[in-house]
Write a structure and sequence with these properties.
single chain; 287 residues; alpha/beta; 9-stranded mixed beta sheet; 4-stranded mixed beta sheet; 9 helices; 29% strand
């Protein structure tokens, strides 16, 4: 089975460049502003498509200019949009991100239409035909993630959850997950282990692998750790690159990881390819 279904968020991103992110009550004079395609779901779908996967997207946008822009970008990247709902009830999702002089960023997300993804969008047989993997994130309600995961399991597809942002997961959803991917903060919140280096990332991955079949912990400049249930953890150091921007690096990692797994590569092989893709991504300006 050769297709990835991504169910998740689409955001119209406003990107601001500033010398630093504002403190409480502070006004900062920025240097540039850009309008971009975003949402973890959308970014990961495009990344997987660029990595060679056939991708279908399940989501929702408003009947507005941002929504038309988001759909156009998906189509330009050969992502199937037949299962994206267009609603007049609320605007498209959006986010505002501030990038500082070091290339790090913080963002505020407003979900809007992403909260209106409906279960009926996930029960169409055509969506699951030839699907080998479902990719989820935590930017849409868990109720939608659960319906999607249950449908995927019913159709014999693997389920990958990028648990970002971190939130408590129901036992029903946990039971459906074949691969959990988290960053250092999310790993800490779910495992109780602070992740400040690669050794701690390995520890967190091993703890989480007692609840999930396979776990990947991305630890930024330290590298990435991964563990399959019943096995010892493994790790890869971060590749040395000149950092330009971290924005979208995690989504780039996810797309390459899932595409590689679907192409038959082992977890260590897929993690290595995703690690390389993310390193290349952060060494170039945000697109």
């Amino acid at each position: 089975m050769s297709k990835i279904v991504v169910a998740g968020s689409l955001h119209y991103d406003i990107m601001l460049q500033a010398p630093h992110r504002p403190e409480k009550g502070e006004t900062v004079i920025g240097s540039s502003c850009a309008y971009k395609f975003g949402g973890k779901g959308g970014n990961q779908a495009v990344s997987a498509a660029k990595a060679g996967a056939q991708v279908s997207f399940v989501g929702a946008v408003g009947a507005d200019d941002p929504g038309r822009f988001l759909l156009a970008v998906l189509k330009e990247n050969q992502v199937d949009t037949r299962h994206v709902e267009i609603t007049s009830a609320t605007p498209s999702g959006m986010s505002v991100a501030i990038m500082d002089a070091e290339g790090d960023y913080g963002a505020v997300v407003v979900s809007n239409a992403n909260n209106l993804i409906a279960p009926h969008q996930l029960d169409q047989a055509s969506l699951w035909q030839d699907t080998g993997m479902l990719l989820l994130q935590n930017e849409v309600p868990e109720a939608i993630n659960l319906v999607a995961a249950q449908q995927a399991k019913n159709h014999g597809a693997l389920v990958c959850l990028n648990a970002a942002p971190a939130r408590e997961l129901s036992t029903q959803l946990q039971a459906c997950i074949d691969l959990l991917v988290v960053n250092a903060v999310e790993a800490r919140d779910l495992s109780g282990i602070a992740v400040n280096d690669l050794h701690q990332a390995c520890m967190a991955a091993e703890v989480l692998s007692t609840s999930f079949k396979a776990v990947v912990v991305t630890a930024g400049e330290h590298g990435v750790a991964f563990c399959e249930a019943g096995s010892s953890s493994q790790s890869l150091p971060a590749l040395k690159v000149e950092l330009v921007s971290t924005h979208g690096a995690g989504d780039c990692f996810m797309g390459m990881l899932c595409a590689s797994l679907l192409q038959g590569q082992t977890l260590p092989q897929a993690v290595a390819k995703a690690n390389q893709a993310a390193a290349t991504h952060v060494s170039h300006p945000t697109r």
